[in-house]
Amino acid sequence: MESLRLLRKELLERQMANQLGSKEALLQFMSNHVFAVWDFQSLLKALQQRLTCVQVPWAPTSDREARRLINEIVLDEESGPHPDGSFASHFELYLDAMKKAGADTNLIEEWLKTIEKSRNFSTAIASTNLPSHIVKFLKTTFSFIDNGSLVSIASSFLYGREDIIPDLFRQLVERLIHENPDKWRYFKFYLEEHIHCDEEKHGPAAERLIQRICGNDPIRWAEAENAAIFALTARIELWDAMVAYHVEHSEAA
Predict the structure, then answer these.
(1) Is residue 121 part of a domain?
(2) DSSP secondary structure string for all residues of 212-243
(3) How many domains does the chain have?
(4) Are 230 and 4 in contact (CB under 8 A)?
(5) CA distances from 203 to 110, 121, 222, 240 (A)
(6) Neighbours of 98 (CB within 10 A)
(7) Which domain of life is it from (predicted)?
(8) Does 110 map to a domain?
(9) Is the residue at 60 inside a domain?
(10) What is the DSSP annotation of 92-111?
């Protein structure tokens, strides 16, 4: 899709390799970006709910291959390897990497407490004091989860998240190679694990998923393109807002 190629190019031109020029900027980025890592898990679980049976009593769903594909992705995302030899979700690994690097985890930890208490996104987001750019991004994701079709959720998952992550994170890894090895060890592990999973497994699996969901239906493909543009635009706006947020707080300090 040409429109998606142009949006991807715009995101890559704006992104972190040029904007995270200092350790402080990277730590601030992590404190914001962790919310995108968190809500990705919710997007993933929404897909799993649509493509598999998660109720009791159990019954088989119609698309056997789609069921297998999404469950393979869930396994890696929820129970992937951890550098300490155990297993953890990619979100938990990211949070551990933040702590190891010295990034502020107060915002995300307070958000987790709010979510665990309310068990409802709308209730939690209405009572939070998160920065407005994070709130806007989370609301965009949950608009797909709460109101979107299977096509729009899958498209957002692939084109807005899985498909864009490898390009972004490869550039970050190159910057971190020359940093303090112990301090950035967990984050480097996270980035390399994400690149490995997304390029070799999750990216191709998500492509096959969207192919199976849309088939030869031009209406579904049009819907997928619109959802992807919406998701990528939200990611671009989040990136710009995170940079502005860092500049504002740096000047205030």
Answers:
(1) no
(2) HHHTT-HHHHHHHHHHHHHHHHHHHHHHHHHH
(3) 1
(4) no
(5) 31, 27, 20, 25
(6) 22
(7) Bacteria
(8) no
(9) yes
(10) HHHHHHHHHHT---HHHHHH
- Give the model confidence (pLDDT) of 114-148 as tens digits: 999 999 999 999 999 999 999 999 999 999 999 88
Classify 150 as helix, strand or coil. helix
Phi, then psi, of 74 in degrees rounded to 5: -60, -40
Q: Which domain holds residue 214?
A: 2-102+132-252
Which residues are CB-neighbours of 127 under 8 A, at least 6 positions away? 114, 118
Spatial CA neighbour of 219 closest among 133, 141, 162, 149: 149
**In the block, residue with structure tokens 């649509």:** 50
If 0-12 CB within 10 Å is exposed, 13-18 middle and 19+ buried, where does residue 200 land?
A: exposed
pTM: 0.88
Q: Is residue 119 part of a domain?
A: no
Q: pLDDT means per 10 residues in the chain (253 residues)?
A: 66 58 79 92 94 95 94 94 96 96 96 95 94 94 90 88 56 71 87 80 88 96 92 84 73 59
For the chain, helix, strand, coil in percent to 5 are 80, 0, 20
For 80-92, letters b (16+ CB in 10 Å) and e give bebbeeeebbbbb
CATH number at residue 202: 1.20.910.10
Q: Could you tell me how many residues make up the chain? A: 253
Q: What are phi and psi of 87, to 5 degrees?
A: -125, 150
Q: Is 224:155 a contact under the CB 8 Å cutoff?
A: yes
- For residue 155, give the amino acid letter: S
What tens digit of pLDDT does each residue of 74-96 get? 999 999 999 999 999 999 999 99
